[in-house]
Amino acid sequence: MRKTLSCILILILVVGMAVSLSGCGQKVVINVYNWGEFMDETLIDEFEKQTGIGVNYKTYETNETLLAKLEAGGSSYDVVFPSDYAVSEMIKRDMLLPLDYSNIPNIKYIDERLRGQEYDPENKYSVPYFWGTVGILYNKDLVTDPVESWDILWNDKYKGQILMKKDVRDSIGVALIRLGYSVNTTNDAELEQAKQLLIQQSPLVNGYYGDEIRDLIANGDAALGVTYSGDFMDLYWEGIDNVGYAIPKEGSNIWYDCMVIPKSAKHKKEAEMFINFMLDPDVGFRNSEEVGYTSPNTEVIKRMQEEYPEVFELPAYWPDEEALSKGEVYVDLGDYKAKYNDILTEVLAQ
Amino acid sequence: MMKVAKKIYMGLLYLFLYAPIIVLIVFSFNESKSRGHWGGFTLKWYAELFRDRQIREALYYTLLVAVLSTVISTIVGTLAALGIHNMSKLGRTVVLNINNLPVLNPDIVTGVALMTLFISMGLELGLVTMLIAHVVFSIPYVILSVLPKLRQLNKHTAEAALDLGATPSYALRKVILPEIMPGIVSGALMAFTLSIDDFVISFFTAGTEATNLSILIYSMAKRGVKPTINALSTLMFITIVVLMLIINKKSDKGENLLL
Amino acid sequence: MNKKLRLLAYPYSVWMGIFIVIPLFLILVYSVTTGDIHDASSLKLSGESYKKVLEPIYLNIIKDSFVLAAASTLICLLLGYPAAMIISNTNIKYRGLVLVFFIVPIWMNFLLRTYAWMSLLSPNGFLNRFLMWLGLPKLELMPGQGAVLVGMVYNFLPFMVLPIYTVLSKIDKNVLEAASDLGGNKIVTFFRVVLPLSVPGVVSGITMVFMPAVSTFIISGLLGGSKTPLIGDLIEQQFISSRNWHFGSALSIILMVMILISMAIMSRIDQNNAQEGRKV
Fold first, then answer.
1. Counting one residue from B and one from C, how many pairs have CB atoms under 8 Å apart?
2. The most confident of A211-215, C37-41, C88-92, by mean pLDDT
3. How many domains does chain A fold into?
4. Is residue A8 a part of any domain in this protein?
5. 3-state class of B177 per DSSP?
6. Residues B85/B151, Cβ–Cβ less than 8 Å
7. Is A12 part of any domain?
């Protein structure tokens, strides 16, 4: 046993040396921290080759875990990928460095319509990376009614077949939109109504989930639920065609996942080079093919239209002007967030 | 009759334990990334596995931390258990209750608290902090599995050895250790298990330098865990099974190696 | 000998002081204050967080967590004790193997295993497809407390079997023979001899299952559809998505105190039993 153990130990150490040596040297290494599975990782090798800058690529799973880590400190990150409301919170709390656009000339490719959103009105700190909507994903075998309004999530007919998001903003947001209020409301009375609406819905709800909703609906374990447009695209690219995605007519949330440079960054210029690299039309196109979400880059979209014209028929990939104009982005709620959190806890505990 | 019943009982338990593992292995051959959909048989995830830099790195750190933290916590924990066993009743109660805290505390609390501690100590988060954290939550389990064996131990055996002229360390090695070995081994097994499976505490105590498989896998939750991870798990599983069978075969008295 | 051995506990006590007591003290401080956690000067003493814990909604969540943890501990004990007995009576050549294969499943990643349980237990999952194929009615386990229990028992069972096994394996076979020589039948021998002698292992097992089970998280989210929020999920939420460390800390301090009290009761039982065991 002792021998076996020491053999295993030595083996691990040797492999480790090989692993760490391969990423070693005198060069600058930037720490890039992204959502899991949210980048074509061959592009990283290419960036390293092109620029001689090393990339230490790590991944996380939610905006909240990212914020918790950045807030605590103890390590430095050069490029991270928060969503809209997280960007707005980071700006408010002075956690970001302003971008120097002379190092990011490729910003010119970013669609004008998608710039200057409420979470960062002048794009002083953030560049959009992918964007999309919140909508209803449904299993075509189980849902026969047309899906065009949020009302269907309150329809008795689908009792025990409805999935809601466990996410605070998304679940309460749906209720707020259905009531005709802003998804960023800080009005107690409006929130109270949203809470009552969700409590009233709770007997119909099969469960409150995160990203599992996509697979549960595709598998027919539930009929319909709230998801991000990207979830539908994942299924679409897999060739799973028994599901549909609709952006309800009342409007919806539009989300942006962005690239930003946190205050703890040690290599700001190299970080900006990385952001610029990701905005390059060629790079962006390959990344867009791999990830499958909608790019904010006009050149990338042109190429997508040539290569995959069919996806522009899908509301999940290419929402129409009406959906865009009725869409609202999330911004940080500050201390009022606590109220939203308590509401969700109360709804879940029904 | 009794024998058959016993076999059926164990068979059912193993079925319960391995049913999800079988599911996991089956999905490693699934062409589709979606768990809810069978897209046909493929080996492409296995091929992709060997090209994936992130998985390779994470696997390395996972094993390194698991092995190191198991070795450290088993040694420290066993020694500590010997000490605790011989303490006064009051001292033992106090120490044991503190020792239990990491077990009963939600992982997130241990993780956040340790992270705050490390940062306030001025340590850069990384491999070392992650290792310390794993040792912190593993030792209590080792102590909890060694102590019952010590309580079973016949007090007079060690004393007799000493009376017969054995030095304390000789008595420890030759009399006490063999008696409590099953407790030590099960403590080590638990330490290894906890380390290899930990996500929350690792997430908060690891910095940009190191990451482990759990952190990588959880980070995939948004897009759906890639079947390459299932492929990796399948290979790990087969390796473990083969390794165990070889170890067992090589020793006539299987006991010495695994117990 | 005893005195010298006692010294071995001191280095670990120092270690505990640094890595268990100080972090816990931090949590305690957070629980009785409000303000920005990353700025020590902004912290103000406040009982607000504890007041919030006492709201019925949170007390209910704590109650649910204890009930589910107790249920899963009991099931683990009922399933695990016979298994530990069978293993301890297995031919010594295979014993190690049988034991290790009890734990190997847990070496596969927790999230993957839980996803696998989702695939097994979901309404259209493998289990229900199998039942339908047999012509049996579907089971409506997931999402629900049944599925959550399955998930919990699955994850904690080895932690019950291991300690019981280690204790059972070293019960002197002569004692058992003596008992049967004296005319005790198997059942009497079990209840009067084996069971009392195995109490330390059972106590260790219950400790190692019950304590982490109370604060378990993710399982209730994935297998229960978050419809029975548990204290572990709630605490996790406070530290991550709500980032209200004060409330999260207060919740965990309360949880800790409650678990310690139930464990104190356990150890009382244990001591009584140990004395009885000695009498036998």
1. 275
2. A211-215
3. 2
4. no
5. helix
6. yes
7. no
The answer to whether position A6 is within a domain reads no
Domain C50-279: homologous superfamily in CATH: MetI-like (1.10.3720.10)
- ipTM for the predicted complex comes to 0.89
**Do the domain assignments include residue A11?**
no
Q: Do C9 and B241 touch (CB under 8 A)?
A: no
The 8-class DSSP code of residue B174 comes to I
Tell me, what amino acid is at B141? Y
- A19 Cα to chain B: minimum distance (Å): 7
Q: Render pLDDT for A55-76 as a digit per residue (tens, 0 to 9).
A: 999 999 899 989 988 988 888 9
Tell me the two tokens of residue C163.
């300690």
Q: How far is Cα of residue A57 from the mean position of the Cα atoms in its chain?
A: 18
Residue whose entry in the numeric block shows the structure tokens 């005319």: C183
Number of neighbouring beta carbons within 10 Å of residue C25: 12
Are A89 and A36 contained in the same domain? Answer: yes
Alpha carbons A41 and A38: distance in angstroms, whole number: 9
Cα–Cα distance, A221 to A163 (Å, whole number): 10
Residue from C65, C241, C242, C244 to probe the interface with A (highest A Cβ count within 10 Å):
C241
One domain for residues A192 and A237 = yes
Mutate which of A15, A59, A212 to test chain B, going by most B C-beta atoms within 10 A?
Answer: A59
Where do the structural domains in chain C lie, given as residue ranges?
Answer: 50-279
Of B186, B200, B213, which is closest to C163 when you measure between CB atoms?
B186
Nearest by CB to B152, which of C8, C92, C200? C200
DSSP sequence for chain C: -HHHHHHTHHHHHHHHIIIIIHHHHHHHHHHTEES-TT-GGG-EE--HHHHHHTSHHHHHHHHHHHHHHHHHHHHHHHHHHHHHHHHHTS-HHHHHHHHHHHHHHHHS-HHHHHHHHHHHHSTTSHHHHHHHHTTPPPP--SSSHHHHHHHHHHHHHHHHHHHHHHHHHTS-HHHHHHHHHTT--HHHHIIIIIHHHHHHHHHHHHHHHHHHHHT--SHHHHHHTTSS--HHHHHHHHHTTS--HHHHHHHHHHHHHHHHHHHHHHHHHHHHHHHHHHH-
Residues A102 and A241 in one domain: no
CA angle A58–A62–A64, rounded 5-degree value: 110
Please give the C-alpha separations between residue A284 and each of A103, A274, B248, in angstroms, as whole numbers.
17, 12, 54
Q: Which domain holds residue A36?
A: 28-131+255-311
The topology (CATH level 3) of B54-225 is MetI-like fold (1.10.3720)
For tokens 């198991």, the residue is: B70
How much is the pLDDT for A232? 96
Q: Are B112 and C238 contacting, i.e. CB atoms less than 8 angstroms apart?
A: no
Tens digits of residue pLDDT in B46-93: 999 988 888 999 999 999 999 999 999 999 999 999 999 988 889 888
Residue A148 near residue A246, CB atoms below 8 Å: yes
Q: Is the peptide bond before C123 cis (omega within 30 degrees of 0)?
A: no
Residues A111 and A259 in one domain: yes
Beta partners for residue A225, in sequence order: A137, A163
Q: Which amino acid is at A131?
A: W
β pairing state of A29-35 and A54-60: parallel
Do the beta carbons of residue C23 and residue B114 sit within 8 Å?
Answer: yes
Lookup: tokens for A236:
């679409």
* Chain segment C156-215, per-residue pLDDT in tens: 999 999 999 989 987 877 777 787 777 777 888 888 888 888 988 998 899 889 988 998
Helices (H), chain B: 2-27, 44-49, 53-85, 89-104, 107-120, 127-152, 155-163, 168-171, 177-197, 200-205, 213-219, 227-250, 255-258
